[in-house]
Design brief:
Elements lengths: L3 H13 L13 H9 L3 E7 L3 E3 L6 E10 L5 E11 L7 E8 L2 E2 L12 E11 L4 E10 L8 E5 L6 E4 L3 E5 L10 E3 L7 E6 L8 E13 L4 E11 L8 E5 L6 E3 L4 E12 L4 E10 L9 E2 L6 E6 L5
Parallel strand pairs: 1-11, 2-12
Antiparallel strand pairs: 1-3, 3-8, 4-7, 4-9, 4-10, 5-6, 5-8, 9-12, 13-14, 14-19, 15-18, 15-20, 15-21, 16-17, 16-19
Length: about 325
């Protein structure tokens, strides 16, 4: 049994001290600390585009510019962006939504599948360097059966719509002093389309210069003539930028290497493709890879053919 002195000491301890039964928070790992400490703050400006009419079947239609600035405390890696379609139009009029930056598609092209208009775009390998600003652009492809007079626009609801390795995210909406209608209205005749047919290789790919990686044909339907400005090809194989160099198509620039798994080739001047016309395209380049590397090029999305319809005489 406790004597009188021990009882008084115990009573004083219970009066002035409490024991916290809550377990302490787990100690952050080194990776978590580096991720938090190394990330800068992200400032975002959302710039809507001026509205206008869009024919059914139009592709790579600009819907929104998003300017992203990383603070000087560290670079910011963007993981995903959530957008919302608004306007009195059917969400099914839009066949694909995707994001480009520096003339490069940085997200998969996703279909609109929700009636509420929301869509989450995963961003692939894209960062804002410290103290710098980069602009990403939201593009959409309209269905060839899009309803005429349907109206569409896209918005970025707020900071919670962006998932990024950032210490903080601040979003500001930018509009013209005199606000203009921002909806894209579907109107006019349907745009023609370009189809792609992959052809078999005539030779085996081996180490060396000017090897053939891909043969394919482009064909315009009977609706319109087209002017092709650039084509982006994606390698689904394991060969990387060190393995494949000096890539080009007929009439295009020569790309030094892949960027990630993609190569974007520009045509200067653009090449023409008249209605019902086919054009053979051959992707060539230098192989610096071992036999264990694989090469499997495709045009991943219709929007990876950057073209414009030409209504009138094409030379």
């Amino acid at each position: 049994m406790l004597n009188m002195t021990e009882t008084l000491l115990l009573a004083l301890f219970l009066r002035y001290f409490t024991i916290d039964s809550t377990p302490p928070p787990p100690t952050p790992t080194y990776r978590e600390l580096r991720k938090t400490e190394g990330a800068g703050a992200l400032s975002v400006e959302v710039v809507p585009v001026t509205g206008g009419t869009i024919p059914p079947g139009a592709s790579r239609v600009k819907m929104l510019d998003i300017n992203m600035t990383a603070s000087c405390s560290g670079e910011v890696s963007i993981k995903s962006i959530k957008l919302v379609r608004r306007g009195p139009g059917d969400y099914r009029d839009i066949s694909r939504v995707y994001i480009v930056a520096d003339n490069r598609r940085i997200s998969p092209a996703m279909p609109m599948s929700r009636r509420d208009g929301s869509i989450m775009l995963r961003v692939n390998s894209f960062s804002i360097p410290r103290c710098e600003t980069k602009t990403i652009t939201v593009l959409v492809d309209f269905s060839g059966t899009a309803s005429v007079v349907g109206e569409h626009r896209f918005v970025l609801p707020g900071a919670t719509s962006i998932v990024a390795a950032a210490s903080s995210i601040n979003v500001r909406q930018i509009r013209d002093t005199i606000r203009q209608e921002e909806n894209r209205t579907v109107a006019g005749e349907q745009y023609g389309e370009i189809s792609v047919t992959y052809l078999p290789l005539t030779t085996r790919i081996t180490y060396g210069h000017r090897r053939t990686f891909l043969r394919f044909s482009l064909k315009a339907d009977g609706l319109d003539d087209h002017r092709i400005n650039a084509i982006t090809l994606t390698n689904r194989g394991t060969a990387n930028k060190l393995d494949l160099q000096s890539l080009y198509l007929p009439g295009s620039n020569v790309a030094a290497s892949l960027e990630g798994d993609k190569v974007r080739l520009e045509f200067k001047p653009p090449i023409s493709l008249k209605k019902n016309q086919s054009r053979l395209m051959i992707l060539r380049g230098d192989v610096r890879a071992s036999r264990r590397r694989t090469i499997d090029f495709i045009i991943e999305e219709p929007g990876d053919i950057e073209s414009e319809v030409v209504r009138g005489r094409v030379r």
